[in-house]
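Quick one before lunch.
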Amino acid sequence: MTDVLLACTKLSKDYRDGDHQLRVLDNVEITINSGEMLAVVGTSGSGKSTLLHLLGGLDKPSAGTVHFQGKDILSWSANQLADWRNQQLGFVYQFHHLLPEFNALENVAMPLLIGGLSARQAEQKAAEILKLVGLSARALHLPSELSGGERQRVAIARALVTDPALVLADEPTGNLDDETAQGIYELMLSLNQRLGTAFLIVTHDQTLAARLHRSLRLQQGRLVAGESA
Ligand SMILES: Nc1ncnc2c1ncn2[C@@H]1O[C@H](COP(=O)(O)OP(=O)(O)OP(=O)(O)O)[C@@H](O)[C@H]1O
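Model of the adenosine-5'-triphosphate complex:
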C-alpha cells in the first residue's frame, strides 16, 4: 500500500533554556504509509520522544506541518485532537502505564469505554484483542500479577483495541531483556500483518529496528541518511 497516512514537513521544535534557544528537532521530514512499520532510531536525547509527541498531536511544533490522511492536524482544536487520538491512534510507551487497580481485560477495554461503547461490547472486543496477543489466560490478572513482557503485551492490546490506523510506540521494549524484546517485536510484526495497522516505533536498538519495513536515523534532532531494512 502506498497511501500516505501521516506526514510531517520541516518539523522543528525549540525549547528556551534561560537565554539559550535549544533546537531539539530540526527540519524533520517523515512520511508513514498505511500499513507500514517504520522505525526511528536514535541515541538518548536525539529527539525521539519529542518527535512522537508532535506527530501524535500532544505538543505543537515551533515550525513545520503535520498532516494525517491529508488533513492539517495543527489546525485542530484540543477536542478534535483528542477524538482523533482516541479513534485513529494507539500509543505504547516504555513503561506500560496500565492502571494498577484494573485487570488486563479492563485496562484493554478502557479506550473503548472512553469512546462511548457499552461495558459489554468493550469487554468483548478487549477479550478478542487479548487473544490476539496471546494473553486470554491472563485476562483477569492485575498488572502486578503479570511479567514485564506480558504487561507490554497488554499495553499493545490496549493500543490496538480501537482499531487505530497507526500505533506510535516510544521505546516499547526499553525496559525488557533482549529475548522478551524480540518477542514483542515479533508480536507487533504479526499484528501489523494481521490487522494492517501501521506502526511508528522509536528505539535506540538498531537490531530491533532492522526487523521493521524501514528505519530512519535521528541524530541531534536531524534525520540523517536512513537505512531500509
Ligand atoms: N520540555 C522540555 N524543555 C526543555 N528541553 C526539553 C524538553 N523536553 C525535551 N527536552 C530536551 O530535548 C532533547 C530531546 O529530548 P527527547 O526526550 O525527545 O529525546 P529522546 O531521544 O526521546 O531521549 P531518550 O531516549 O533518552 O528518551 C533533550 O536534550 C531534552 O533534554
